[in-house]
């Protein structure tokens, strides 16, 4: 089929981000967005990954365009407190690993860990291998690293900004409830109280409801076996001491039956307790959440399901965002299911002049399924790597539940780097089965001769000096608040 008209069903961040991308990248296609004024958006996703910055670049949006209107701040890392240890923060920092020193690399850290105790500490990998860890812990920002950051943002404000600043006057916007009319090719049309909407391709952005893909076309939803959290209690929290609380990273703090996120926006914080209803009731979760925050706040309760539909694209319907799939809030993957599918859709629409065939649809399905399935394993690793077993929840996820373990943890698999897995694994002291410090040291000496010891001493000094120089440099840089005030919130 040739796609000349697209109808997006549902607004929110997914709907308006899809519309914005289409008008920016394929302006020859007519776009209609229809949304109900009786269906609230989830509006929880306030933390993103580094890929989100790449996507905004892809559709021509700069930080100065939108951040100040969307309460946004920069994000350098994801920190985990009381998740693996009670007194240490494990970071998954962003940015390229060669940010500070292109001469050294992944192999150096392993080799150094065999010869020097400083590099065998479980948190040495995050400390030395990526400068962003130290940037996060110092809570400083400077120009050179901004291109490697992600964002904290008010998702509702961002969706409205896309609607009003990018899409207004360039798409048809209809406020109405819709009823799909089906035919053999999928959706024939959508009926509304005021008329009929017809399109070549219908995009489902109706969230967990999945009105078109699941409810209308019956595409099956498959849960992820490796995840168990399915509820969250969330709140907006005011700063008590903004200078200290506005961090440049998302914090994840382990509680009795899950974890609490803290996303520092410019004017407030977003917080939420993610848990499994197998271990807590909503009342119990809200009480523990408030006790953790230390104040009575107005809370909302959200129920979600983890998993993906069998297909993202079936017949003439493509699901984007929550209507296709969801993991859980850990690792900020919520918007990932939106912008990554949009990027693949844009590629399909532009490579053959809008002509869509089975190869386009099926390849998009395969790629999107692989991305979310792989990410589910990454998220699950945070739980099975933890050594916590002090509550029924943590005992279950760390000792009793069975997982399909990544090759990373198998002998010889330590060079297989999938996203941030090394930071999580090494921080949790889960080294690959093939890692034996004494054996590796002997192997290195046999392979390179006694001179390897001198080489490791030189490299030790180089890494330590790098870290020292970075710390001295950061002392002179502006705090996160100061940097945002001088660049975004002038």
In short:
The chain has helices at residues 12-25, 50-58, 63-66, 106-115, 124-129, 131-138, 143-146, 155-167, 211-216, 242-245, 282-293, 336-351, 358-384, 392-400, 421-427, 437-448, 451-475, 480-487, and strands spanning 5-9, 30-35, 73-75, 77-81, 89-93, 150-152, 172-175, 179-183, 186-192, 195-197, 201-204, 221-223, 231-237, 249-255, 258-264, 269-275, 300-303, 307-309, 313-314, 317-319, 325-326. The protein is an alpha+beta fold.
How would you describe the overall organization of this protein?
The chain is of the alpha+beta class. The chain has three domains: 5-73 and 151-224 and 306-377, FAD/NAD(P)-binding domain (3-Layer(bba) Sandwich); 95-148 and 405-475, no CATH class; 231-303. Helices cover 40% and strands 19% of the residues. The chain has helices at 12-25, 50-58, 63-66, 106-115, 124-129, 131-138, 143-146, 155-167, 211-216, 242-245, 282-293, 336-351, 358-384, 392-400, 421-427, 437-448, 451-475, 480-487; strands at 5-9, 30-35, 73-75, 77-81, 89-93, 150-152, 172-175, 179-183, 186-192, 195-197, 201-204, 221-223, 231-237, 249-255, 258-264, 269-275, 300-303, 307-309, 313-314, 317-319, 325-326. Strands 5-4-14-15-16-13-17 form a seven-stranded mixed β-sheet. It has a six-stranded mixed β-sheet with strand order 7-2-1-11-20-19. A three-stranded antiparallel β-sheet has the order 8-9-10, with no helix packed on it. Strand 9 and strand 10 (195-197) form a beta hairpin. Mean pLDDT is 92; it is low at 98-102 and 412-418.
